Amino acid sequence: MGTVSKLSRYWLEKEIESYAGKLPANSVVLDAGGGACVYKKIFAHCQYESADFAQMSGLQYGKLTYVCDLTKIPVEGERYDFILFTQVLEHVPGPELVLRELLRVLKPTGRIFCSAPVLYHEHGAPYDFYRYTQFGLRHLFAKSGFNIEKIDRMEGFFLTCAYLLEFINDGLPGHKIAKIIFSHYKKLFLKLEMKNKIADKGLPINYIVVATKPGN
User: Fold this and answer.
1) Assigned CATH topology for domain 8-155+203-212
2) ∠ CA 113-117-129 to the nearest 5 degrees?
3) From CA 126, how far away is CA 206, in angstroms rounded?
4) What are the residue boundaries of the structural domains of the chain, listed by start?
5) Are 66 and 50 contacting, i.e. CB atoms less than 8 angstroms apart?
6) Do residues 166 and 185 make contact, with C-beta atoms less than 8 angstroms apart?
7) Which of 149, 158, 171, 188 sits in a 20 to 30 Å window from 141, CA-based?
8) Taking the model in full, what pTM does it have?
């Protein structure tokens, strides 16, 4: 797969595809913090909408349905059957306010799919505020009113090892021999991740949360 980030995106897309495939045709979907709208094609059988504040420098935004703060999405309540909320929670200063707004626009028994980092370098400056443990995510979603279906590790143990080696290697000043060694083991861990993904223990790069809005 090449780099760590490509393989991480591969695992994320597989998860998203598994949920998108279960949605009936013409389901109304919100990509919250949709950015470049890269997942639009996965929801081609649905009514796809996107919302983002569109102020992060260096990011190429797609054709957004709503340019807005995610605490104030300009739609009626209970509009969406499914909400996609990937790699955004760390970038909002008030995560509980955002989750409560997403709960408002989600239909009863509708589902939200969220991914958020626990171990990742600073990015998207100056809009990079938090990292989340599985316990912090459980607390936030429950406090915001969601019923949690599952919280899983997105990546396996070997990919986390590869990420740490890549991160260290990129920051090393000089040290050519160390860089060669780290690069070799990073490639080894990437191969091991594809052969035997171990995602039931250890520290991932990201967690996945799947939750629903309580029914009437």
Assistant:
1) Rossmann fold (3.40.50)
2) 105
3) 20
4) 8-155+203-212, 157-198
5) yes
6) no
7) 158
8) 0.95
